[in-house]
Design brief:
By secondary structure, the protein is an all-alpha fold. The protein is built from 19 helices and no strands. The protein has helices spanning 7-19, 25-36, 39-51, 55-83, 87-95, 105-137, 146-157, 160-180, 183-209, 214-222, 231-244, 251-256, 265-293, 304-315, 319-353, 357-377, 399-426, 429-436, 440-467. The protein starts with 6 loop residues before the first helix and ends with a helix. Bound molecules: phenylalanine.
């Protein structure tokens, strides 16, 4: 059936015009990078790489980015731009109101649930970064030993009220921007803050090169030792590919709806993936030399960057200044990602419940904030509480660990799977060919990937993890 004759298709064509578009391809890249680049790159990537043994894990992660993340990002942007509406309505518009299987709503629902759950703990970690601005600025880190730096971090985790204060502040920052809906201001901020973070990260890498253990870190990160790779490590790598690229919860779909026609979806998506992955690898190159030079444990867990980077700042010239700047920029990176986590929930409340923006932001923000308290407590008072510990693979996982595991490793890949199936099996192939404007072989490669490879790969990793261990 020719789509262009249906009323829905007509609506599809006119819809972008009334919503305003990104000012340029560059602006889209900035906004998408602002969402993608965040704590996932600098906080999470190094610590899960350390926990999963390095090289082989990194290789699987890179493969997941290239073979699964990039094609799904293209699919999300494509669906968003073609639909030209909020994610759920774009899916509806593309599939045609009547023929739409209710299951496609799940993509929107997953986005809302994942946004709630991720933001609740994301904000707690964002709070750690806020707290370290003061720690670095006050000069407390200068000349300290690894033990003293470790103690500063454990003291922070042991103190629920301080954690609550920083978590509250971070949530307030996110809510402030979302309530105002100031996208333009954000665009401008991202333009110079993200490159600044990049430069500062390079500075730390430069320092890390002088520690004498740079070679060992490179080997650790890039020489695969497959004996260290586990089934659950593969799931973590896959899940992180989704988490770090902000995929599987329709964020890129929402952003894609603002992308002007005629701009290459493939090129822009590749740019976002390359920048995001580059930053993560740089973070690894900054952190692991410090880990090895100071005899620290690569598998130290979520505290890794807070136990290593302060050490570097404490030893390098003008370290207090660099350290302060670094944590300020890390807050900005986390802030832009946090905004993209809250935005879909607020849009959903506005659309479904007819609430105005301020009230939706307050309501959604409050629930995330409240949920965040459970993550805070699992760092201290409830640190031995593993609610689902009787399930083999969840043994010893605190509430915070569970939230992270469930969102990144289950919800986001599931959302991505639905997107792949939608693009591969529901949308019209001709329409997608037109929208992507790739050469024939490149289009075929993408199409086969979303139609077969992605669903099979995500499905296989799920099944292996459920029944294989
Ligand atoms: N990509 C962000 C990061 O790496 C986190 C995020 C996940 C943001 C999902 C939006 C949606 O920190």
């Amino acid at each position: 059936m020719s789509e262009s004759r249906t009323p829905t298709a007509k609506a599809i064509e006119g819809s972008n015009a009334i919503r305003g578009l990104w000012s340029s391809r560059f602006a889209f890249i900035l906004a998408a990078t602002g969402s993608a680049m965040g704590l996932g790159n600098i906080w999470k990537f190094p610590y899960i790489t350390g926990e999963n043994g390095g090289g082989a894990f990194v290789l699987v992660y890179l493969l997941c980015i290239a073979a699964i993340g990039l094609p799904i990002m293209m699919a999300e942007v494509l669906i968003g731009r073609r639909g030209g509406r909020s994610p759920v309505n774009s899916l509806k518009a593309i599939a045609g109101h009547d023929r739409l299987n209710p299951a496609w709503r799940m993509v929107g629902v997953i986005g809302v649930i994942a946004g709630f759950l991720i933001l609740s703990f994301y904000s707690v970690i964002g709070g750690w970064a806020v707290s370290y601005v003061g720690t670095a600025a006050s000069g407390q880190l200068t000349g300290q030993s690894a033990d003293a730096i470790g103690a500063i971090f454990s003291d922070l985790l042991a103190d629920p009220l301080t954690l609550l204060m920083w978590h509250t502040l971070f949530m307030a920052l996110v809510m402030f921007v979302v309530a105002k809906g100031v996208r333009a201001g954000l665009e401008r901020a991202v333009t110079f803050l993200m490159p600044a973070l990049f430069l500062l990260l390079l500075t730390v890498v430069g320092y890390a090169m002088t520690t004498g253990e740079f070679g060992r870190a490179v080997t650790f990160l890039f020489q695969p030792d497959f004996s260290k790779l586990t089934t659950s490590g593969i799931l973590v790598a896959l899940g992180h590919a989704f988490f770090t690229l902000s995929l599987g919860m329709a964020v890129m779909m929402a952003y894609g709806s603002y992308l002007p026609k005629g701009i290459s979806i493939a090129k822009t998506s590749i740019a976002v993936c390359v920048i995001d992955t580059g930053v993560a690898l740089l973070a690894g190159l900054a952190i692991f030399p410090i880990v090895f030079a100071n005899g620290l444990e690569p598998g130290a867990g979520p505290g890794l960057i807070f136990q290593t980077l302060p050490l570097a700042f404490g030893q390098m010239p003008m370290g207090s200044l660099f350290g302060t700047l670094f944590f300020v920029l890390l807050i900005f990176a986390a802030w832009t990602s946090g905004i993209s986590l809250l935005e879909p929930i607020v849009e959903w409340l506005e659309e479904q419940k007819g609430m105005n923006r301020t009230r939706s932001t307050l309501a959604a923000g409050f629930v995330c904030w409240l949920l965040g308290i459970a993550s805070i407590l699992s760092l201290n008072l409830w640190s031995d509480f593993a609610p689902l510990g009787w399930i083999g693979m969840l043994e010893g996982k605190t509430i915070f660990d569970l939230l992270d595991f469930f969102t990144a490793n289950i919800l986001l890949p599931l959302g991505g799977l639905l997107v792949a199936v939608f693009a591969g099996w529901v949308m019209s192939r001709e329409a997608m060919e037109k929208e992507l404007a790739l050469s024939k072989p490149m289009f075929r490669l993408w199409y086969i990937t979303v139609r077969y490879i992605t669903p099979v790969a995500v499905g296989a990793v799920f099944i292996y993890n459920l029944f294989g261990s």
